[in-house]
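Hi P.,

Sorry for the delay on this. The queue was packed all week, but I finally got your sequence through. Input first:
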Amino acid sequence: MLISSISSSLLISGLSLRSAWPEIAELLIMLAIMTELGVAPIYIWVVDVYGRSSATGLALLASLPKLAAAYALIAIRPAVPAPIPVVLGALSMLIGNLGALTSRELNKILAYSSVLHGGFAVFIYPVNPPLSLAIMLADALGKMSLFYYADGGSAKWASLVIVMNQIGIPPALGFWPKLLIIIAAVEAWGWAAGAYLLANIVMSVPYYIRVFQTIPEGVAKFAFLSAVIVLALGFVPDFWIRYILSL
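Then the structure:
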């Protein structure tokens, strides 16, 4: 609640100052959205809150607010200098991966994974804002599923599909946003940017393997539905990618 209050205050202040002090206003709006996404410099709240909460509550907390923040990013589109989101996004990806690799608790691994995906969204924002929403949509569905599975269990095939989604392995839904982000980054900034993104994707593999091994087997109600949705959307990317990119 405290972080949400801070984020809302920054957002309202930024929107109200847009005509009087546009440079300051745009920075406040961007900081508000990044705070809600849980990326650098204000990311540690994600780890703290996720580490202390139940998996059931986190199924919603880790998905819907982040998705709403990503939508606000492309709806308001704060005009900040490109180096700010690029540098903070790149830093968030590195922090997220290093934090997840060195964590042992499932909640904290997924918390740092949220920092990673928020970093992807912020990093690509100056080049293609709709891709920020696309990557957070894939992450929101995946996080909701993994926290739900952690509480009630799931079939191994369903857990595997969601883990593939989080890493960005085809044919899962999460493959397409990451592919398009790499392509957009290479076109804008060259192969070094694409290599950095790919390196961060590869770094996520070891801890997602641990997540897969940690999810208990079970038959929780609706446990398979999210995996089916993630897989189905992954097979028909034109069904949703075109719409998001047109926003």
